[in-house]
Amino acid sequence: MTDPETSPEDPGNGLGNGAGTAGGPVRIEGPWTHRDVAANGARFHIAELGDGPLVLLLHGFPQFWWTWRHQLTTLADAGFRAVAMDLRGVGGSDRTPRGYDPANLALDITGVVRSLGEPDAALVGHGLGGYLAWTAAVMRPKLVRRLAVSSMPHPRRWRSSMLGDFAQTRAGSYIWGFQRPWLPERQLVADDADLAGRLIRDWSGPRQPDDEAIEVYRRAMCIPSTAHCSIEPYRWMVRSLARPDGVQFYRRMKRPVRVPTLHLHGSLDPAMRTRSAAGSGQYVEAPYRWRLFDGLGHFPHEEDPVAFSKELIGWLKDPEPDR
Fold first, then answer.
1. Which distant-in-sequence residues (6+ apart) come within 8 Å of 117 by Cβ?
2. Where are the beta strands (DSSP E) in 50-199?
3. The 261-266 sheet, strands edge to edge
4. Residue closest to 32 by CA, chosen among 19, 45, 47, 21
5. How many angstroms from the chain centroid is the CA of residue 1?
6. Rounded Cα–Cα distance for residues 258 and 271 (Å)
7. How high is the pLDDT of residue 320?
8. In terms of Cα–Cα distance, which of 98, 60, 97, 56 is closest to 80?
């Protein structure tokens, strides 16, 4: 696949495009440190802070590692090694010509765990990152100590909701729109990625992000090839529904999740309905805790970072998480 949104800084070779350079839109200064790690045949940018058991944070669309800025500090203060990674094709990570199916993206995640020299990790994923966290817990259970997912049902629950629930099909209309060639990429970066900012505002609850935060996400989306790579996982998720690779993936996801799981959701999430997410516990054969945040939308970790972090850390430290 080739991306029409290239520039002299990005020759389209999949070897990065300056996104990770100091002072750029990705390596934002803070108490954390930035570096790159190699995993699954690609290079991934991470921001890390703290020492202790590894907690790997996985962002969703249309964001990048910075969405976890609040949790990086609170997790580190609570005694964890907090690491937020940019998924393949986003932020400071490599933009490869292929490899955006969920099975390969999940191997990116578990590969990063290995590259960090850790025996396992607690995975915390939001949106698309949550979809991949579910997948990684099934594919590489020995590398996943615990699982926390926000704003995303189990992949099989996602599939059944998108195909069988008209309200969820309508709520996920943006995913269907991504199936068109080239136009969605152009729309995402038009007017300095105004659409990316509007999506974040539209999917948030009453606690709207400020203009400065929206500007950060817009700048990151404007990095050449990011829009195209951000959309590719969603294209696979829909186009593979009737293909052998998709049938095989969803059959593989019948295997139950056998690690303690925390499932977080905002009651006002307009992109992923509560009803769609709430049925995911049937795929977990381990302690499973459902937590609904009243008055929050699709981004509870940013809309109310204090409440979200308190719930997450309390569960991570609970030696016997309840069902």
1. none
2. 54-58, 81-85, 121-126, 144-150
3. 33-39, 42-49, 81-85, 54-58, 121-126, 144-150, 261-266, 288-293
4. 47
5. 22
6. 27
7. 84
8. 56
pLDDT of residue 242: 86
pLDDT digits (tens, 9 = 90+) for 28-56: 999 999 999 999 999 999 999 999 999 99
Which tokens is 318 given?
């609970």
Angle at 40 between CA 147 and CA 13, to 5 degrees: 125
Cis peptide before 153 (omega within 30 of 0): no
Concatenated DSSP letters of 99-134 = --SHHHHHHHHHHHHHHTT-S-EEEEEETHHHHHHH
Q: Within a 10 A sphere around the Cβ of 141, how many other Cβ atoms? A: 18
Q: Would you give the distance in Å from CA 30 to the centre of its chain? A: 21
**3-state percent breakdown (helix, strand, coil) of the chain, nearest 5:** 45, 15, 40
Provide CB contacts within 8 A for 116, sequence distance 6+. 37, 46, 54, 83
Local mean pLDDT, 10-residue blocks, the chain (323 residues): 33 35 79 98 98 98 98 98 98 98 98 98 98 98 98 96 91 93 96 98 97 98 98 96 94 97 98 94 96 98 98 95 69
Please report which helix (H) or strand (E) contains residue 310, including its range.
Answer: helix 305-317
C-alpha angle 289-209-267 in degrees, rounded to nearest 5: 30
Length in residues, the chain: 323
Output the pLDDT for position 21.
40
Q: Which structure tokens are listed for 62?
A: 């249309």
3-class DSSP state of 82:
strand
Tens digits of residue pLDDT in 199-211: 999 999 999 999 9
pTM over 0.90: yes
